[in-house]
Amino acid sequence: MNFETLHLCNAKHQKDKDEYIQLIKEDDAVVYYSENMNNTQYNILKKLCPNNPIYFVIDNNNHKLDTITYKEWLNLVNLYKKTFTWK
After folding, report:
1. How many CB atoms lie within 10 A of CB 9?
2. What angle do CA 5, 36, 19 make, to 5 degrees?
3. Alpha helices in the chain (DSSP H)
4. Sheet strands (E) in the chain
5. What percent of the chain has pLDDT over 70?
6. pLDDT averaged over the chain?
7. Is the model more confident about 60 or about 18?
8. Over the stretch 6-21, which tens digit does the pLDDT of each residue have?
9. 79 contact partners, CB below 8 Å, separation of at least 6
10. pTM for the whole structure
11. Could you tell me which residues come within 8 angstroms of residue 3 by beta carbon, excluding any fewer than 6 positions away?
12. Which of 33, 44, 48, 69 has the smallest C-beta neighbourhood within 10 Å, fewest atoms?
């Protein structure tokens, strides 16, 4: 499998997410990070790129959502050729 770009996105600060979504290619993945997140926000973000791997890093995961650890996040960064940070 060819891992191309890992998109890193602060889930709370996506002003132009429709523009950014167009930049995600077939071999890309997205990591959303946030201090906290509810089920609705989580599900909306999961559906934005249904054909790509989507990961979450949530500091205060009070809703027990499916997330990755900080170490797993760093491993993903090392797997991909490039990282692209959304603001």
Report:
1. 20
2. 40
3. 17-21, 39-48, 70-79
4. 5-10, 29-34, 54-58, 82-86
5. 93
6. 90
7. 60
8. 999 988 876 667 788 8
9. 3, 6
10. 0.89
11. 27, 29, 79, 80, 81
12. 69
Counting every residue written for the chain, the total comes to: 87
* Average of per-residue pLDDT across 62-75: 95
Residue predicted with more confidence, 53 or 21? 53
- Reading the block at residue 5, the tokens are 């770009």
**DSSP 8-state secondary structure symbol assigned to residue 13:** -
Tokens of 34: 């946030």
CATH class of 5-86: alpha beta
Q: CA 83 → CA 5, 10, 32, 54, 65, distances in Å?
A: 5, 14, 13, 14, 24
**Strand order across the 54-58 sheet:** 54-58, 29-34, 5-10, 82-86
Dihedral sign computed on CA atoms, order 66, 81, 4, 83 = positive
| Sign of the CA dihedral with 14 first, then 51, 31, and 46 last | positive
